[in-house]
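F.,

This is the one I mentioned.
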């Protein structure tokens, strides 16, 4: 995982993920946190379009409502909200990401941040994947080393 700010002041996050059992071996995520919609072709997920930005905890509900996501509070639950997490612009503590498959009709909405998992501070993504009016909710829990 790598985070940097470009010459225009825009933050980028790049993540290489490996997955066993996936023929391509994983995927490379490049998120540009300016909320501009971008289209790309991913080795695992196919042709997608998505947008990403920093948000504060108080913005989660309104941002997911704008995207029409029904999550029962999943995306906004369990976050640690101390000053240590408020490191984004204007004290934002989360990353919001919304991706839509151009060819398959699914969407994936994610909120990234830190949660207490088994007594440890862990980097977590709360995710809602939806297609044809049905959705699945899950968490992806990562090891995080500063």
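My design for it:
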């Amino acid at each position: 995982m790598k985070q940097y700010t470009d010459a225009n002041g825009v933050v980028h996050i790049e993540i290489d993920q490996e997955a066993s059992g996936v023929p391509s071996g994983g995927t490379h995520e490049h998120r540009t946190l300016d909320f501009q919609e971008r289209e790309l072709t991913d080795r695992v997920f196919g042709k997608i379009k998505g947008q990403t930005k920093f948000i504060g905890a108080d913005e989660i509900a309104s941002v997911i409502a704008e995207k029409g996501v029904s999550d029962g509070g999943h995306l906004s639950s369990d976050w640690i909200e101390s000053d240590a997490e408020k490191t984004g612009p204007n004290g934002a503590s989360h990353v919001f990401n919304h991706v839509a498959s151009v060819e398959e009709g699914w969407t994936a909405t994610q909120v990234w941040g830190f949660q207490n998992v088994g007594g440890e501070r862990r980097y977590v993504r709360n995710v809602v994947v939806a297609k044809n009016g049905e959705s699945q909710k899950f968490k992806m829990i990562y090891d995080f080393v500063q």
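Residues 2 and 30 are 10 Å apart (CA to CA).

Talk soon.
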